[in-house]
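Lecture 7, part B: from sequences to assemblies.

Below are the input chains for today's worked example.
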Amino acid sequence: MRVRYFAWVRDRIGVSEETVQPPADVTTVGALQVWLGERHPAFAHALEEYPDLVKSAVNLEFAGPSRSIKPTDDVAFFPPVTGG
Amino acid sequence: MRVRYFAWVRDRIGVSEETVQPPADVTTVGALQVWLGERHPAFAHALEEYPDLVKSAVNLEFAGPSRSIKPTDDVAFFPPVTGG
Amino acid sequence: MIRVQGEPFDAGREIGAFFEGRTDVGGIATFIGLVRGHQSGTNVAAMTLEHFPGMTERALEAIEAEARRRWQLSDVLVIHRYGRMLPGEPIVLVATASAHRASALDACAFLIDWLKTKAPFWKREETAEGERWVEARASDDEAAARWD
Amino acid sequence: MIRVQGEPFDAGREIGAFFEGRTDVGGIATFIGLVRGHQSGTNVAAMTLEHFPGMTERALEAIEAEARRRWQLSDVLVIHRYGRMLPGEPIVLVATASAHRASALDACAFLIDWLKTKAPFWKREETAEGERWVEARASDDEAAARWD
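Predicted structure of the full complex, as structure tokens:
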């Protein structure tokens, strides 16, 4: 599973992209977040400190924490967008 | 008193501008319209046929029929505007 | 700033010059009104805009002043042509500059809506059947009224 | 049409090209977002826009499609830059063309409001105190929500 991080989420974790193989019981974006937090304490900390400020996308579309995921998915975590 | 006509109001009357000396009892835009209608039957006809489509201005500002006028005023009659 | 002119203008160039060098502005909103080549199913070969010199400038200045009263604007530009013009040519350009986009967007819509019903211009179209004065539309009155 | 690019663009020239030769269009509405030289009292020396390649284009195309569903538009153009830019430079251009001005104006406001909250861009400012990520604003969420 491809995981990408953007903006200050990436700055905190220090990784922009990684390929991970979460256990079979990690079937949602929310569960993946928790599991990734174990690999990256800074990510766990960000989620705890700013739970509303970490957004996610699956396969290039916005997705909430209940969205189900599979090993071939492309998942991304980032702050609320500030373009325009 | 300077009187000007624009757009199809002018086309109907056949005059774009004239200097007139209405009698002393013509003290409003509405009274002036009636008096001008006597000079220009086409104007009287337009006022009768399209009473809502003849607008007026006094001294370069929109003015309704009850607006009072004096001999030094600059009065204009024209259809609803269609710019932009 | 208000400009009423007979000469054509390059709307893109005017917009570029409008924000050139500004670093205090977050958003520019513009509206360009063009001559359409057809109207209610009839081809329009050309359009002539008549106006009331003197009153036109005064009316547009009053509309600009009202926009500046209602919104915090860094700058306003209104260019309106008169005379004969061909399909595709710009008739009017409205541009607003503001620190914040909502002010720029709202003020731009306000300016064109009020201009349409409060500035003394009259359009005459040339069609295959001859010339005709364009009639005022109730929808323009309604658009202006939402700002009352 | 959607363009996401690192290179600067000339907003005036793009707007000119957008309506050049069109005779089917009565109104063009545009919005240009510029880098501001100060933000909340702090001088901003430069701004860097990060984006999510692939998702950005997809999000902007979905927003354009939604605008075309809601309004009768002859054309839509969205240009959005990424990378580092200086105060006064355009970040984004939205342009809409329609037979009728209300559609052009409303669709333009809709496009920039949705783009602000639904396209994956992130701004980082360079100030005298260092670099900082720009925080999302509740007012942008509210502006987008009025189109729900």
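Note for the exam: The longest strand of chain C covers residues 90-98. Keep this in mind when comparing with the next example.
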